[in-house]
Amino acid sequence: MNTLYLIVLFSLTVGSLVNSLKWSRLGQREHYIGGSVTRFYFRWVKSKTSNYMLFILLLICGIISLWIAYFPFIVIILTILTPIGLTFSSRTSKVVKTERLSRVNNFYYFVIISISAVSLVVELGYLLALLANIFSYYVYDQCLKILANYEKSLSQHFVDSASQKLKEMQIPIVAITGSYSKTTTKNVLNQILNTENKIFSTKESFNNRLGIAKAINEDLNSSDELAIVEMGTYGIGEIREMCSWVKPHISVITGIAPVHLERMKNLENILDAKSEIVELAGSVVINGDDELLLNQARTWTTQKIVYDCSTTSKQAVVFVDYKDGVHHIYVKGKIVSKVSASELLQLSIALSTGVLLALELDVHNYFSDVKHLEKTTHRQTTIESDLGHKIIDNSFNSNPMGIEHSLKLLNSEGEEKSSKYLVTPGMIELGNDQFSLNYAFGVESSNFIDAALIVGYTNKNSLLLAFQENSIPSFWFPTRDEAVKYLNTIIKPEDVVLFENDLPDHYP
User: Is the distance from CB of 418 to CB of 495 less than 8 angstroms?
Assistant: First the structure.
């Protein structure tokens, strides 16, 4: 192999190593799930025509590189600079240099260098190094997959410690899952029970295997009388595994909706994944307005006590009726209490009441000690900006169910002369329904707003189409900061702005 080929081989190897800065950011933001880096790479490629054309150019240059030894340098530049918009540094959430990230990166470095070494030893020139450079995102994904079981074994002692702690405590455990309102329901239940008991509750977003174990190990005290554990999932089997050591006595399912469809593929898979939470529980509290859950609950009633909780039907075990800022709570058709809270909390109050019944606690006594229930941060929080206008902050975890409440709140705020603005990137992780559900969101929003500011490429086309068809002035911005900067030039003190969702910066 001549000197030029060695220089090319070395340069391709270094270029692949540099690309780890981008792929590690994607991998960490997507919880180190193998395949996520490739998925997001092509999401950026497809986000705009320029990226798509550059990807085609990259492939063409890769093919030409097999004959012309100078073309690999163009390949290296293209792989480092593209896709345009997916930068090495983060904009909103910085990469945390954890031990796990270091292990993944070190293994990736080993694999890349090994590929180049093999290419050299078997006299393939720089061919293998070229392929590794062009498809370095795929190589990184394979490293994530290979290390997954090893990483799980490394962290098992944290889970074992948390499991042992729960076993020694022997307190009632309530586990909560669902496609939406998990955190809100957890916080509402915590507020209610805290009036008379000492409660342990997992921290916000600590809803996976290690997050739950960390919360239990660090925050569960010997004086706690009850534990509330929120459980999230990205696939079949995750909740079943968490329940195998958490062992909940009461399970709560808030509802099934087209959230995480990108990973789960269909509602039936989402239902199956969420239903794993009931397998070890004696009592199950469900959203009685969800037909999928109601049908599934019929298979549980022979072995478990099921409490259906509704916001629409007095025939349910628990019914919560909302009117003028007050929730009236009915149990088996009879009113037992009422509480002041925003309409957003209606379902969570109903489900929390179901948990009180499952715990055989006096619903009236607990609610009589609650003066007002607070919403969770970034869930339709209303604040006043420095410029004097009103902001409705629903920037965290938007979903098709919660958006209805956001628009209702927007409609009720402001004065007759107020202009109402929507700032949104739309909803994400909706799989094949991504376009249609965001288009429907745009159509529905058009009934309440005077102008829309769309953020990012992810749902640009569906939202713009919806607003244009409904004659709503709409403006597009690559980032939320740019949208806010423009908004501040036109906003008036009497206006109202709804921030619906905040797109993570690894999304286009």
Answer: yes
